[in-house]
From TrEMBL:
Name of the gene encoding the protein in the UniProt record: gatB
Record-listed E.C. numbers: 6.3.5.-
SMART domains for this protein: GatB_Yqey (SM00845)
Annotated HAMAP family: GatB
Keyword field: ATP-binding, Ligase, Nucleotide-binding, Protein biosynthesis, Transferase
Biological-process GO terms, alphabetical: glutaminyl-tRNAGln biosynthesis via transamidation; translation
Catalytic activity, reaction form: L-aspartyl-tRNA(Asn) + L-glutamine + ATP + H2O = L-asparaginyl-tRNA(Asn) + L-glutamate + ADP + phosphate + 2 H(+); L-glutamyl-tRNA(Gln) + L-glutamine + ATP + H2O = L-glutaminyl-tRNA(Gln) + L-glutamate + ADP + phosphate + H(+)
GO-annotated molecular function: ATP binding; glutaminyl-tRNA synthase (glutamine-hydrolyzing) activity; transferase activity
Described function: Allows the formation of correctly charged Asn-tRNA(Asn) or Gln-tRNA(Gln) through the transamidation of misacylated Asp-tRNA(Asn) or Glu-tRNA(Gln) in organisms which lack either or both of asparaginyl-tRNA or glutaminyl-tRNA synthetases. The reaction takes place in the presence of glutamine and ATP through an activated phospho-Asp-tRNA(Asn) or phospho-Glu-tRNA(Gln).
Presence of the UniProt keyword Ligase in the record: yes
Family affiliation: Belongs to the GatB/GatE family. GatB subfamily.
Signal peptide, first to last residue: none
Organism: Solibaculum mannosilyticum
Name by which UniProt lists this protein: Aspartyl/glutamyl-tRNA(Asn/Gln) amidotransferase subunit B
Length: 478
């Protein structure tokens, strides 16, 4: 029998606000345990929540880019559950009137394009974090993360493969980063996904027993977990043990390559939702929505088409550039300062990305001044330094944030462009290497590379390469 996997995702995105959702504590990542807390986010009796307006604006922005309907009247609710890292024994979230519903995100996989439906997006607070100490056999609680602002993006059960899940998460991450809603750093937990998975016979319309894999924050781990959990469901069904499948929450162990049962899966009635009397309803006006809409930057898909049609870049370069807001910002700044798109793209997708890879970083983690990169490219374009010297200066800009113009001056790296001086160096090299000259004249064209290298050596790598080639060819062919 053939089987079909059916999945829905709950994606938690930590918002890029400076302060928490219901208090003024810092949202900065890291810090000593329990150093970013106050009576409100640590659950002290009598402390009341105050709504962070920026969270609402980020919710509106997320709704606009996911084609969602914005509920212009939305409210907050209390969701009760009893974990040590939840100070109040309830979470402030949205159930009855979330900020937006009925959205969609278009993805593209090897099977083609597909629209993933969204049930809703709602605002809520995060819980704290338990830290388990195996040496003392104790568990400690850090409330720094408590009341961090989240958007929970709840999809419909539209996924049928791990490839679709990964494509969806990458698309969400790209859109939300571009509009500045979140940094979506999965390794820091600012974007994580709960995977709800069930298996049914192909062609059936009845959903199977659902298992939820919690707090997944690695695309590679998500793929492995989906593959394992799908196989586990099918094995139990085919071995006649389908009754052993339970609606439960499971934990993925990346080292073991398996999921393990954590607890039975709660239903809405288990959480005892009720309206939060401490927070008034939020009324979102048409003007507010329009103001947020006007503030949105150009999105990745629009940039992709513009880079190809207006800037004349290849589709491959355009896709690489639009995969990261950092790369797009570098390109856009360079083009705005008069550098050709192709030249800027070559530097960014080639030299800058090579430095990042050698540093073990992905594009989104690159930290380099777009102004200084533009300065450097212009130094090469204006023949102040040659391309090889430019690469060395770029490495210094990347590693030490130096000023490229001052660095070139201080280290005497300006290019030798005097035709007479270069011609004199070429003649000296030809006189010193008669055999190589004879090899070239007898048809060994690779000898030109050796002679070019010797001239560059004499010039200490600072000569105009185009001029060297012209003079070499003129003298060798006389």
């Amino acid at each position: 029998m053939e089987y079909e996997v059916v999945m829905g995702l709950e994606v938690h995105v930590e918002l890029a606000t400076k302060t928490k959702i219901f208090c003024s504590c810092s949202t900065e990542f890291g810090g000593e345990a329990n150093s970013h807390i106050c009576p409100g986010c640590s659950g002290m009796p009598g402390a009341l929540p105050v709504m962070n307006k920026q969270v609402v604006e980020y919710g509106i922005a997320a709704a606009l880019v996911t084609n969602s309907h914005i509920n212009q009247y939305c409210t907050f609710d209390k969701k009760s559950y009893f974990y040590p890292d939840l100070a109040c024994s309830y979470q402030i979230t949205q159930l009855y009137h979330p900020i937006c519903v009925n959205g969609s995100v278009e993805i593209e996989t090897s099977e083609g394009k597909k629209s993933i439906g969204l049930k809703q997006i709602h605002m809520e607070e995060d819980a704290g974090k338990l830290k388990h100490d195996p040496f003392t056999d104790n568990s400690l609680v850090d409330y720094n993360r408590s009341s961090m602002p989240l958007l929970e993006i709840v999809s419909k059960p539209d996924f049928r493969s791990a490839e679709e899940v990964v494509a969806y998460l990458e698309k969400l991450r790209s859109m939300l980063k571009f509009i500045g809603v979140s940094d979506c750093k999965m390794q820091e937990g600012s974007m994580r996904a709960d995977i709800n998975l069930s298996v049914r016979p192909m062609g059936s319309t009845k959903l199977g027993v659902r298992a939820e894999m919690k707090n997944m924050n690695s695309l590679k781990s998500i793929t492995r977990a989906i593959e394992y959990e799908t196989a586990r469901h099918i094995d139990l069904i085919e071995s006649g043990n389908a009754h052993k499948l339970k609606q439960e929450t499971r934990r993925w162990d990346d080292t073991a390559g398996k999921t393990f049962a954590m607890r039975s899966k709660e239903n809405a009635q288990d959480y005892r939702y009720f309206p939060n009397p401490d927070l008034p309803p939020i009324v979102i006006s048409d003007e507010w929505i329009e103001r947020v809409r006007q503030s949105l930057p150009e999105l990745p898909e629009a940039k992709l088409q513009r880079y190809i049609s207006e800037l004349g870049l290849s589709e491959a370069d355009s896709r690489l550039l639009t995969s990261s807001k950092v790369l797009c910002d570098l390109l856009d700044d360079a083009v705005a300062n008069g550098i050709s798109a192709k030249t800027a793209a070559n530097w960014i997708t080639g030299d800058v990305m090579n430095l990042a890879r050698s540093d073990g970083k992905i594009a989104d983690d690159i930290v380099i001044s777009s102004h200084k990169l533009t300065q450097l490219i212009l130094l090469v374009e204006k023949n102040v330094i040659n391309r090889n010297t430019g690469k060395k200066v770029l490495a210094e800009v990347y590693a030490n944030d130096i000023d490229p113009e001052q660095y070139v001056k201080d280290h005497g790296l300006a290019m030798v462009s005097d035709k007479g001086a270069i011609e004199e160096m070429v003649k000296q090299v030809l006189d010193s290497n008669p055999k190589v000259v004879d090899d070239y004249k007898s048809g060994k064209k690779q000898a030109m590379g050796y002679l070019f290298g010797q001239v560059m050596k004499q010039a200490k790598g600072k000569a105009d390469t185009k001029l060297i080639n012209e003079i070499l060819q003129a003298l060798l062919n006389t």
